[in-house]
Amino acid sequence: MHTVIIYSCPNTLIQRNNRGVKNIMTERGARKVNRRDVLKYVGAGVIGAGIAGVATYFGTTSFYSQVTAKETVTETVTKTVTKSAPAAVKTTTVVVPSYTTPKPGGGVPSGPVKIGWLCAYSGPAAVSAYSGDVTIDMVVEKINAGGGILGRKVQVIKREQGKAEDTVREVRKLALEDKVDYIMGIIASGNAEAAAPVAEELGIPLTISMARSSRIFAKKQYKFVFRTPQCDVLESVNGMIFILKQLGEKIKTWGYLMPDYAYGRDIWTITKEILKKLRPDIDIVYEGFPPLFTTDYTSYITKILAVKPDVLYTTLWGGDWITFVKQAKPYGLFDKIIVAAGAGQECHSAVGMECPEGIFAGVRYWFLWPPHELWPLNKEYVEEYHKRTGGWPYYWGESTWAAIMMWKSAIEIFYAENGRWPDFEEVCKTMEGMALACPGGIRYIRPEDHESLIDDVWGVTKYVEPDKFKVPLLNPIHIGNPEWCFNPPGIYAADWVKSWPDSIVKTLREYLGLI
Amino acid sequence: MIAKIRYIRHNVMKIVLIIIAFAVLLVLPKILPRYQVFLISQAMTFAIVALALNLLLNYGGMVSFGHAGFFGLGAYVVAFLQKYTPIREFWIAVLLAIIFSAMFAAVVGAVCTRAYGLYLSMLTLGFAHILYVIMYKLWMWTGGSDGLPVDMPTIFGYDFSNVPRMDFISNYFYYLILALLLICVVSLWIIVKSPYGRILEAIRDDEIRCKFLGISVSLHKWVAFIISGAFSGMSGALFAFLNGRVTPDLTLHWSLSMEIVFMALLGGFKTFIGPLVGAVCFTYLKTYAIATTIFWEFILGACLVVIILLLPRGIVGYLADIRTFFAAKNYPKEGEKHGNSRM
Amino acid sequence: MVNAMISMTTFIQIISSALIYSSLLFLLSSGLGLILGVMRIINLVHASFYSLGAYLAISICKYFLKFTHNVMILLVFLVIAGLFVSIIALGVEVSLLRPIYKRAQEYQIILTFGIVMCFLGIIKMIFGMQPKYITEVYSGLGTLEIAGVTIPVYNFFLIGSAIIIAVLLWAFLNKTMTGRIIKAVAERRDVVEALGINSARYLTVTYMLGGALAGLSGSLTIPLFTAVPGMGIELLILAFAVVAITGAGSLFGSFITSLIIGFIRSIGIWVFPEIELALIYLIMVIVLIIKPSGLFVKESIRV
């Protein structure tokens, strides 16, 4: 009977608890971040860190066997979900979206509702964005089969995102010429950064469902722009703790190979600050910045092999990661150096069976977490995806699912409360502060800066049942609670790391086993 | 006086056409949807730079594949001004864009006056590309491949920064661009018809003879570069405000230089007004190619190829050909009229 | 920042990566320079020939991988794919370029620009937009240990092929009749015509040769790289810089310049990774100012 609890028609389950939301987060608008706020968050973070530590300890594959038959599914789900869900979620009602829609009674405009989808169809980025593209087709098909949104069919207009200027142009065209109601997608951080102000000035809701640079929302507040994937701060902080914990004293030297643009540079800054705080004894012996989408990595590879850092942190993604793995394997780089891939999902989605074992991969969403027996949303999504493509979904797909379901649920919630179709501003207001059940867990949209808080997954690649999965799996696996590994709104992540007080640092170092 | 009247009577058709076109353009923002107004504004911006290029191309005989450099420099000046200074005044931004582009053009021109033919083209291409690489590499200051944002300016102290961009364009900026385009057209017309323009054409036709006549060839060519660069810079600044985002691939890439030359060729670079027509047509061609299919490069490329092969003198030239065809009985035999063509 | 001593291993590694890049540059720029010197057009379509060579190589190899896993045969197919591009070049030249030889230069260059766009669209249509790659050829040859450094054997194949092609090209241009006529056409086309030789035909041969070189540069280097639509366009401007520095038509100069640029890049990445290629364009402009005809071309300015 667990389906009754997990699944529900949105109408009956939706009662947004504004009190809960308002208690924890202050209102948008003027909000100075002072020391006390930061400490408050970091304090909550320490507790969260403790919880996360426990989660990590149990987060290896042995966790799966920890679930004994005696527990009911409900209990396990509650344990799983609330263990890793942000604190805000515990006092907000979780919205569980579904593919069906309630029958409208009136007040709904006729005609289809249009979504603009911006994706990379060509170039090195296309290899990654594929997951999102399949997901949107899949989800829209199912929504339309279930009656559309309040009876209106959903149409998707697909456009190539190209470079930053192309995205800007397409957003304008989608909003003004095609008159879409919602824009989603965008995989490159630079494009997202360029598109956000344009969507804001046009007053059309935009959800960035694939790009992850935290820069977009760090200093500017948007009414109309949202983000569903876990941003790069989550990846960096969570990943660093995982790597430092796993490898411990073995690490003496560190190297970086980051693509030379905003995303690469941001993560470089954040992780460097973390290293300075937690392991100042580690020497950074190499920092390489190949241009984005360059084709020849051999020069960088030879230099890295000569310098031989213990760990090489890299966020090469898409076609870059494929080229790099291809060029580095004959040199035996993966045998000699431990590689930490911040854009780890590429190991599975792009490279697949050619991927070496033993890579620390940050994948954001892992298709086996939450475990399918405990979280049927994930099971259903992954199985449907696998049936369609023979492959497995990665974070682009999951975030895209969340982006479209979040919007659909917001419309239905608003209609249930007000009896009419919301305009753009109202939809955005409804989406703020929503806690949405997604395949990857519970996703909370922070009202201040519209960032998403959801589990962030790291793991080490290992081939388990290669014939069944056709990609390497992650073993051990590490789940990061978003609440403690994400900075509060309104501050750059690097500054936030710099501001960690000594007490926090001490606790973390103890956790890492360094004291 | 009589010459003036005769001039007007001779060109009555042209003048009436211009007045009608102007009247239509004035009214358009009220009747067209905002996106179309945006497109027209963009077309007008590129018309300015195409006309500026034509000064060098047709009247100077120098093929420049580096005009994206002047255009992009103007755009980046505006972006830098917004990023590093609190100055938001439109006219200051445009003035600075013109000055910097002119300075850059002075440098390029000084070098290029001694080069000829293919080497001139390669040099201009090289200079523009260096600018591209600089803006790309120094991402700390220039925003790299993602570029820099540009907000709405204040015009004559009237603050537009809170107005949504589309409304700003439809209601105010369109007219500003139209006015500036008109000023450009008139200034370039005056320059071309002035003694300076005549000397430039003479240099284009036969340089050695000019030198013998005591004309300082290098100086005239250099001045042509500066003028062309200045107008291109202004065009770039307008584009920056129009688009809201300045990136190296959009404003400095060598393919943009190729597109600008193509605009001039498409419209008919032998005429004065050709590049303007070419710019408008190309903007629409490219926009609707992109909107039609993901294989838009093929459509655009095929159009380029077909137009180059079939319309040797551009659209305006083609229209002129049609006119002469119908008036053929008034003209001398074939082969005598167009003997001086470079094609 | 880094204190890596120049040991034997690093030395070999720098040389290895430099030579790879130089081979790529040489193959690409020699064709471009040849066409520029003989036909006096900046052939932007070179970028498309490069891409086509790469994509054809991948398609052919993927097809034949079903029948054989012998890497040697695949290498032969790589070369064939590259040479096949010359046939496409023939088609382009005859149909599109020939009608406008008499026109002004800017027309020719813009026409080649249009053709590049067309081919970009065609490549997207035929081969799709996802990146493509073949790893089997690169890893199939295994690796070699030299002084403690692991170098894939394919690198040697690539460098060796470049050298062989250079030698063949030199022999063709200097020892065969066709080659010598081509050189003559480059210098004084009118005299060649006066001698009764149909120079247009030799222009076509030159264009095919240039196309073959571009195709080979694409097909021989694709095992290392990933093929994306538009891959040639970025590389083209670099090849163009090489040609501008060398001067058009000098094969030897092309060889040397490619070597130098490859080493500059390799050492540059070692010492100061940021600069990469920005330096090259500066050198190009300086050379064009001081000696516009190029460093390795002997005569003075000629239009």
Describe what you observe in this structure:
Chain A is built from 22 helices and 16 strands. Chain A has helices at 2-6, 10-13, 18-24, 35-58, 62-66, 73-84, 126-145, 164-176, 189-202, 215-218, 232-247, 262-278, 298-307, 319-328, 333-336, 345-351, 376-389, 395-418, 424-431, 466-469, 493-498, 502-511; strands at 94-95, 113-119, 154-160, 182-185, 206-208, 225-227, 253-257, 283-288, 311-314, 338-341, 360-364, 435-438, 441-445, 452-453, 456-462, 473-480. Chain A has a seven-stranded mixed beta sheet. In chain A, strands 3-2-4-5-6 form a five-stranded parallel beta sheet, with helices on both faces. Chain B has 343 residues and is mainly alpha-helical. Chain B folds into two domains: 1-31; 32-330, ABC transporter involved in vitamin B12 uptake, BtuC. Chain B contains 16 helices and four strands. Chain B has helices spanning 2-10, 12-31, 34-59, 67-84, 90-112, 117-137, 139-142, 165-193, 195-205, 207-212, 217-243, 248-251, 254-267, 274-292, 296-310, 314-326, and strands at 148-149, 154-155, 158-159, 245-246. In chain B, strands 1-4 form a two-stranded antiparallel sheet. Chain B has a two-stranded antiparallel ribbon with strand order 2-3. Helix content of chain C is 72%, strand content 3%. Chain C has 303 residues and is mainly alpha-helical. Chains in contact: A-B, A-C, B-C. The A-C interface holds A 121-124, 126-127, 130, 260, 285-291, 293, 295-296, 298-300, 302-303, 305-307, 318-319, 322-323, 326-327, 329-332, 354 and C 1-2, 4, 7, 9-10, 13-14, 16-18, 20-21, 124, 129-131, 133, 135, 138-139, 143, 150, 152, 224-226, 228-231, 265-266, 269-270, 273-274, 276.
